[in-house]
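Shape matters. As here.
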Amino acid sequence: MAAAVILGAGVPAGLNDSKKLSAKRRAVLDKSIRGTCLWAVAVVEPKEIDRVNIFQATMVAMTRCVRDLAMQLACDPHEVLIDGNQTPERRCEEWRWPARAIVGGDGIEPAISAASIIAKEWRDRMMIEAAAAHPHYGWERNKGYGTAEHMAALREHGPTALHRRSFAPVAQAALL
């Protein structure tokens, strides 16, 4: 999951790393960002993640959402700011924009903060929706992270199509 954001004139106050915000504050900011900014989200499905690996899937997701945002703009961005220490440049064939990696960028660069909020909220909504179809895993609470509850359900019920086969507990269960 990745998101890209171009901040609008009315930048919401209080942007920060999505992990440092309460769920309530994140939801308010998500709505405000999506209402006042240009944004795009890209999701890489579990089978593709298993095929290319989690790092490459992240690079692919970034490429897709920046491509979609560039299409909304009808022009290419001058520079793409990316949270972390690596960019998709030379890692994804489709990547064609100048980029700058910023370690801890989701806590210091407002556009990256906004993207982290949208991506987190989008993913959480996806997991809550998936929980309705797969109630044993507690995804409405743990959002798919490897909590004790999730691991116990995985051992008891096995993986779903939404589980990455490369996720260590799933891979280990397949060996049993």
Q: What stands out?
A: The first strand starts at residue 2 and ends at 6. The chain has a mean pLDDT of 94. The two ends are 30 Å apart (CA to CA).
